[in-house]
Amino acid sequence: MRFSSLRAALLATVALAGCASDSDKPEGHWTPGKGDGVFELTEAGPAPRGEELAVELHSSVPAYRVESYGNMKLSIDLTGKGGADAYMFVEGPLTKDGDGTPVGTGTQVADDDDSGGGHNAHLDVTLEKPGVYRIVTGTFESLGLGEVPTGSLVFKVNCKANCERTAIDQKTFVAQLQAQNGPAFAAMAHDQINKLIPDATAATALNAQLDAILADPQHAGLERFPMISLDQLPLIRPVLGAIPAKAPAPDKVISGELSALLGNCNAPRTPPANIDARLPGIGYGHFPSRELSPCQFSHADKLAEVLTSLAADNGSTVTYRGNTVHSPADLMNALLTTGHTIRVRNEHMYANFLSATIGDNADLRWPVWLDTGLKLSSGDNLVVPMGHSGWSWIISGPVVNTKVMFYLGTDGAGFFGQASQRPGWTGMTASYDTVVTQGSAGAHDLMQTLDAAATYLRRTRIERTTIAAGMPVDGYGYVGVCNDSDAVIERFTLGSIHAFPLMRAANLDTDAPALHDGLDDLIRDLPNDGDGIPDTRDALRRAVAMQPDGLPAWDTALSTQITTARHDVQ
Fold first, then answer.
1. Are residues 211 and 299 in contact, defined by beta-carbon separation less than 8 angstroms?
2. In sequence order, what DSSP letters do the residues of 451-519 get, joined into one string?
3. Strand extents, DSSP E, 9-69
4. CB 488 within 8 A of CB 452
5. Residue range 223-232, pLDDT digits in tens
6. What is the pLDDT of residue 134?
7. How would you class 533 by CB atoms within 10 Å of its CB: exposed for 0-12, middle for 13-18, buried for 19 or more?
């Protein structure tokens, strides 16, 4: 009897111990300094919006940024893999665009350990105040108890409300300017039209159209102004790439070790300068990204400069870990072999030609519209905002963490640092998107994109002094635009094209001398949309491929047309 009682007590104790393993977990919450001397908290850049991100913990804990524009509502999941006990906390708003508060020392907004079920963390949080916040992603053992961080996690953030910077539409913008500044806006607009449209007849017509719109108290027609038909594009080719960007410097010879060339991580996030003295408070350009880490922000333009000089083959000498690299592909391959990950994307978005900002934290939503002349099943022509395309490389690893993009712009072809925050209305889609590590299947395509970009850059440097000699902006629009450079790289790498419209002049297919660089036949075989479209179905396919993911909630008529066009190309 006594033995039975003892056995029952022992079994009960074992059962309780097994059932109570979670409830007996020691109390633990993050407090600043908890991990001092054990691990580092590191800036990791923007939080993944709408997609999953694998997080590997190796002696440090990453923190991801989100910028709230006021009352942003987020749903955040951090899932543990292989038994990892996920734990996260949110801090902010942070000082000095996020750069003045060390990771882990900000005001804690929320934290969670197991609300996602099991050992998974989940938060539904509202970031009420505007500003930069961080989501610090670790384990209970690391952030809760201060132990060495190890384990694998999956991180995902979904924005539920107030997800984008305020956008002011063109009608509201013009009405406010007319009320505050009288005729100043009209005068400035005429100046810009005359500057951007070199054809006097086309400029006069647009100015007359604008005057009629401004004279109407309701500004009828402003929602589709300016609209340019595809057959008019050859008249205004130089304006098609007026995307604000730092001009590439392919003639600049650089030398040094990569880390020294990238420099420190000081990140002066300067807001756009005033567009015109007659319009105080109206800036020109894009707001600087506050979600990038200081190193991501600071190194973007510097890495772009290195890649452009290497692509130009101008005698630049760059070393990395004791080895000399001679081309963009060499450099990216060297980064892969030292533990970097490179995400390669072919990106398409709406072009932000006017690039105006309003006050400290609002964008102007004002597309330049393109009447493609392509008939939809509804009987209407497809009319969409003008698009912008380019290939991008997002590098992350022990030395380089930043994003660069390649395209042909009005200042020439080159790599461009991506450190600004594009307006939400411009959207984004990617016709190619792959993550490359050393030895992975995408490594070949990665090298092909870089070799094609470098060859194309050198080609355009020759063409600007030969077939485009004496033309405005070195023949931009005549030898091609951003969409043409995008198409060349895609066709060279994948054998396909998604960009529209392509603007290289058709006569160059016969008049331009061969350069024997491996691109002659490829370029001659590309469409010349600005000079006529023989294959309307393929053109519609490419026009649809340029449309950002989802539908533009800011324009019902555009959403309807995109839906119809997507159905028509199925």
1. no
2. HHHHHHHHHHHHHTTTTTTTSGGGGTTTS--HHHHHHHHHHHHHS--------S-TTHHHHSPP--SS-
3. 40-46, 53-58, 60-68
4. yes
5. 999 998 998 8
6. 98
7. buried
Task: Name the nearest CA neighbour of 335 among 438, 407, 242, 452.
Answer: 438
Query: Which residue from 486, 357, 489 is spatially nearest to 420, judged by alpha carbons?
Result: 357
Name which of 86, 133, 141 is nearest 110 in CA terms: 133
The pLDDT of 411-426, averaged and rounded, is 94
Amino acid, res. 516 = H
| CA–CA distance, 257 with 280 (Å, rounded to integer) | 43
Contact between residue 93 and residue 130 where contact means Cβ atoms under 8 Å apart: yes
Token pair 């309701």 is at which residue?
Answer: 218
Quote the CA–CA distance of 65 and 78 in Å, as a whole number: 15
Cβ(215)–Cβ(450) under 8 Å?
Answer: no
Measured CA to CA, the distance from residue 342 to residue 223 in angstroms comes to: 40
Q: Which has the closest alpha carbon to 304: 386, 420, 388?
A: 420
| Rounded-to-integer distance, Cα 500 and Cα 538, Å | 10
CB environment 10-22: b (16+ within 10 A), e (fewer): eeeeeeeeeeeee
Q: What gap in Å lies between CA 141 and CA 149, rounded to an integer?
A: 7
Give me the helices (H) in 225-327, please.
258-262, 294-312
Helix axes 184-196 and 170-181, enclosed angle (nearest 10): 120
What tens digit of pLDDT does each residue of 330-353 get? 999 999 999 999 999 999 999 998
Asked, as a colleague might, if the bond just before 501 is cis with ω within 30 of 0, I would say yes
Rounded (5°) CA angle 310-312-317: 35
How would you classify the pairing of strands 166-169 and 362-365?
A: parallel
Distance between CA 197 and CA 194 in Å, rounded?
5
* Identity of the amino acid at 237: R
The DSSP string of 163-229 is -S-EEEEHHHHHHHHHHHHTTHHHHHHHHHHHHH---HHHHHHHHHHHHHHHHSTT-TTGGG-SEEE
Confidence class of residue 12 from pLDDT cuts 50, 70 and 90? very low
CB neighbourhood size of 201 (10 A): 9
Q: Are 217 and 181 in contact (CB under 8 A)?
A: no
- Interatomic CA distance for residues 477 and 235, integer angstroms: 10
> pLDDT value at position 235?
66
Within 10 Å of residue 470's Cβ, how many Cβ atoms?
A: 8
Tokens standing for residue 555: 């324009």
